[in-house]
Amino acid sequence: MNIDLNSDLGESFGAWRMGDDAAMLAIVSSANVACGFHAGDPAGILATLRSAAAHGVSVGAHVAYPDLAGFGRRNMDLASADLQASVIYQIGALQGLAAAAGTRVRYVKPHGALYNFIAHDARQAADVIAAVKAVDASLGLVVLAGSALAGWAREAGLRTVEEAFADRGYRADGSLVPRNQPGAVLHDPDAIAERMLQLAREGTVTAVDGSVVRVHAQSICVHGDSPGAVAMAQRLRERLTAEGIAIRAFMDLA
């Protein structure tokens, strides 16, 4: 059995430090690197990319709404031309920095509000899909497992990777618990490791109401900005590998 571990990295901005990229890159197999629209500055992004290259970690463009002040977590009703151009711009910027760091962008993962909105909004989803294809149709697209976007992306011919969230609570319908509600963010490394072992073995997670939800995922995300993120990711990797589940970048898998 194989599964990918990914984390959102490159999100520090100037003197504002976010997460521990160096430590996370020794644990994960894929890095979703900020592109400057929700977080990240050029020098910090480049340093993260160089570290990813040194660790052999697969790199993805973590594209977002233009929302530095809100960390990309506020919904925006962008016109299609604006949204497509912004996604193309972000991927292109990261491609340039990645080339300088000795690596390359292999996939795209939307961030925050954009990620959640296009999971069910056909118009903005089509804009993001069109932008990815305009840059490089061989890029993968990471989406919420079970979302409408997963089907739309496949129909458009993109390599689609469905992901689960190690440190986020699930509702009975398979959606994530909103961040402003109890149970949205999880912190116990052992509990997180056990629930993701359940996901890897059985394809299910236990929702906040106690029900069992089927989640088909090829990748597991641990948010790099969560308190104790490194400890969570390390415990998760240890638990999975102890059970014979190999950690491999999804872009390396057939």
**What is the fourth-level CATH superfamily?**
Glycoside hydrolase/deacetylase
Shape estimate: globular
Q: What's the quaternary structure here? A: single chain
* SSE ordering: EHEHEHEHHEHEHEEEHE
By CATH reckoning, the class would read Alpha Beta
Major sheet summary line: 7 strands, parallel, barrel
- Quote the average pLDDT: 95
Low-confidence stretches: none
CA-to-CA gap between the ends? 13 Å
CATH topology annotation: TIM Barrel
Strand order of the largest sheet: 1-2-3-4-5-6-9
Task: Determine the number of helices (DSSP H or I, runs of at least 4 residues).
Answer: 8
What number of domains? 1
What is the count of β-strands?
Answer: 10
Helix content: 25-40%
Please describe what this structure looks like:
The protein is α/β, with parallel strands linked by helices and 254 residues long. The protein has a single domain, classed as TIM Barrel, CATH 3.20.20.370. It is 38% helix and 18% strand. The protein has eight helices and ten strands. The chain has helices at 21-24, 42-55, 80-101, 112-118, 122-135, 148-155, 189-202, 229-242; strands at 2-9, 30-34, 58-62, 105-108, 140-144, 159-165, 204-206, 212-214, 219-221, 246-247. It has a seven-stranded parallel β-barrel with strand order 1-2-3-4-5-6-9, surrounded by four helices. A two-stranded antiparallel ribbon has the order 7-8. Helix 7 crosses helix 8. It is globular.
